[in-house]
Amino acid sequence: MWRVNILVIFLAFSWIGCNPGVEEHIKNGTAKCEKEDHRGAIADFTLAIGANPKSDDAYLKRGKCREHLGEFKASIEDFDKSIELNPNSNEAFFQRACSRSELGDIIGAMEDYNKAIEIDPKDGMAIYNRAACKHNLGDFSGSIVDYTTVIELTPKDGQSWYHRGISKFDLKDYKGALEDFNKAVELNPKDGKAFYNRAVTKLNLDDLIGACEDWTKAAEFGESQAKQDIEKYCAKGKINSRKDPIFQRSRSEYHLFFPASLPTGGRR
Q1: Which domains occur in the chain, in start order?
Q2: pLDDT tens digits, 62-80
């Protein structure tokens, strides 16, 4: 009888040695994901889940791969499971928010960013993306609060200054918007959109000469609309009416980059 037991134990250890465990599947999947072989990575993470259905990390990583492939409903299902297994996962809430925003569920994305920030109050990307959601929902004051927090965390992030400037512009705080666009241009001196929006802001402050200078810089960096505005407005040296649509160009032509398409962006 003892020989039979030894044989069983031997066969069990032999099986374990020939079959990768959860961590090995996750390691393989992560390597494939880094090489952008997302289908292959999904297969590995699925094997990891088969080996251990309670691996929140395997669900999280498979969800990220599905997110990369644009399979947002499937990625949300994986993030749901990851959160069920580990409700304190900042990353799972963050990633589910990105997927929800890609599906147009901005309210749901906001709820998940709130949870991610509750878990990690210094998650700058989650705060940044929540600010974008708030702006998208018309809560410009709320977005300014969040962008300000991101700026405090990462003062050299030009995009946060840029987007806070857009929110201030939409509140008609043109002086505040100008200060933010100045900083955005200082940090990203080749950002054509920042120059363009600063031009429109200067225009709202009755500085046509300054606006034309910024349109010229924006045009140098590939902003085709700036070239048209230079021809239309700067050649004449004046704009006849403040009802001209150029005064709102910043809002209509150059709205947010939405982080998962974002920097919803995401950190993927």
Answers
A1: 19-86 (1.25.40.10), 173-255 (1.25.40.10)
A2: 999 999 999 999 999 999 9
